[in-house]
Write a structure and sequence with these properties.
With about 500 residues, the protein is an alpha+beta fold. The protein has 13 helices and 19 strands.
């Protein structure tokens, strides 16, 4: 009797399954599109600047990743405030994708884009969503160490400064050490079901501000890297550069004055390194998209005391300048002859020997006076270079102190997404490289990547150590943040990643 009852239950259970079949896990779908956003009215262009859209749909929710060849999402540069809200609102209205599911990343190239960039962004997203196909996903890591360098210097006096084209480098003998770089290229590969590549998302930390030999408008090295990747993939495949924690990372030999800048060469190297890693990735079926979008308040800096300190330092520098008999013309000529020979710099040897035989030392006395004037002139040059660095960074501090208007915190939008094993967390500012290295090391997810410059722009986001710098560098002066921010943000980023 018990066996008969069991058979009845099985028949009922199978009947229910026929009426209500179990829905198989949906296959991830993706679509890509791009639009030319080059400002053709801004002069000659060396290459094309793009807005690109990657639309993803797992059957229950959608995610849109937008990348732009532009310096920032609002606040500075050609993309004005209101862009993000306009784009997200229109996409939600037309495509029913929530604003919190739209990630917008700036490459941080310093190119100039057209005034209708918002409309072109919306068009790219709509086109990406209208041409979606089933895809498999894979993740991997590439390696590149040849194209970038840390621009922060730790000085022998305990201060820190940085490398910019806006001012001179400090003297070689004053530099004690430099900061780290991140050699990792984080890669998400999306292939169609027939094995053809559809999209490559790659994350790397570097300022794409190299420039081109002709000085034209450019997407810079990240634009060239994307082109290199796309030229070596299936037709229609798109490469999406996600800027990482490049706040203090410059292109290699950024201050070179002997060769023209060559973003294409550096971009080709990055693109080829990404392709090398891409070949080792085997995409597979991927489950649900996991996505978190939250905001948090971070402590603002009060720069009043630092401004006072730097103004006092600026005054001391000015007062330290000393008079000298030389000007630039006589200093340069003296520099040549006194470094050519130490024994007889001012004339032929026979005059020195003749004076010495006659018991006179007029030429040697002249050389002694000239050497003192040369040393004073050199000190004045170094002092004036330090004044230019101080002036630039002091102006940045004053700007942010005025903009704070007494506010104690600044609100930021954070995202964390996971597509298969690819995990990404974002921040709307110029994270310096150590912060990205810290988060990657501490994350429990093996393929964790960090994208700055995303969903807004709050200027630089340096480490607490950098913010406590008693000298002057752009990263710790062109910022809104107090040193305590780093610990709070890193903890929150790791907490978001744990929830994925």
């Amino acid at each position: 009797m018990a066996g008969y009852a069991w058979q009845i239950l099985m028949i009922v259970f199978l009947s229910i399954l026929e009426l209500f079949p179990v829905v198989a896990e949906a296959q991830l779908r993706a679509g890509v599109a791009k639009e030319d956003i080059t400002d053709r009215l801004a002069g000659p262009a060396s290459d094309t600047l793009f807005v690109k859209a990657l639309a993803l749909d797992d059957g229950s929710q959608k995610l849109v990743i937008v990348t732009l060849d532009v310096v920032a999402i609002e606040e500075i540069g050609p993309i004005k405030n209101g862009y993000l809200d306009k784009v997200r609102t229109q996409i939600q209205k037309e495509l029913n994708i929530p604003p919190s599911h739209i990630l917008v990343n700036a490459s941080h190239c310093h190119g100039r884009v057209s005034a209708d960039v918002a409309e072109l962004t919306i068009r790219a997203v709509k086109n990406a969503c209208s041409g979606m196909a089933r895809v498999n996903a894979g993740v991997g890591v590439g390696y590149e160490d040849r194209i970038m360098e840390n621009r922060r210097f730790k000085m022998k006096d305990g201060t820190q400064t940085d490398m910019r084209r806006a001012y001179s480098l400090p003297a070689d003998e004053e530099i004690a050490a430099i900061g780290p770089v991140d050699t990792e290229i984080g890669i998400l590969r999306l292939d169609k079901m027939n094995g053809q590549a559809l999209a490559v998302v790659y994350n790397f930390a570097v300022h794409p501000i190299e420039g081109t030999p002709d000085g034209g408008n450019t997407a810079d090295l990240s634009g060239y890297a994307s082109k290199t990747i796309e030229d070596n993939l299936d037709p229609g495949a798109m490469a999406f550069f996600l800027q990482g924690c490049g706040g203090d990372i410059n292109p290699i030999k950024y201050k070179d004055v002997n060769d023209p800048p060559n973003a294409e060469q550096l971009g080709n190297m990055l693109g080829l390194s990404a392709l090398k890693a891409l070949k080792k990735i085997t995409p597979s079926k991927t489950g649900k998209i996991k996505l978190i979008n939250e905001t948090m308040d971070l402590p603002r800096a009060n720069f009043a005391e630092r401004i006072d300190s730097m103004e006092a330092y600026q005054l001391r520098l000015m007062r330290s300048l000393r008079g000298t008999n030389m000007n630039l013309k006589t200093y340069v000529s003296s520099l040549v002859k006194y470094n050519y020979t130490s024994s007889y710099p001012s004339f032929y040897a026979h005059r020195y020997l003749h004076e010495n035989m006659m018991g006179r030392h007029d030429m040697k006395l002249l050389d002694s006076l000239n050497r003192k004037d040369m040393e004073n002139y050199k000190k004045n040059i170094y002092t004036m270079e330090e004044i230019t660095r101080t002036n630039e960074n002091l102006n940045l501090l004053r700007k942010h102190q005025a903009a704070a208007a007494g506010r104690k915190t600044i609100n930021v939008e954070l995202m964390a997404i996971r597509i298969g094993d690819f995990a990404l967390t974002t921040f709307p500012g110029e994270l310096t490289v150590q912060i990205g290295l810290n988060i990657k090391k501490a994350s429990d997810l093996p393929f964790t990547f960090v994208a700055g410059y995303t969903n807004g722009y709050i200027y630089y986001a340096p480490t607490a150590e950098q913010l406590r710098n008693t000298g002057g560098a752009q990263e710790d002066c062109d910022t809104n943040l107090a040193p305590e921010w780093q610990k709070l943000y890193e903890a929150r980023a790791l907490e978001l990643l744990k929830r994925l």
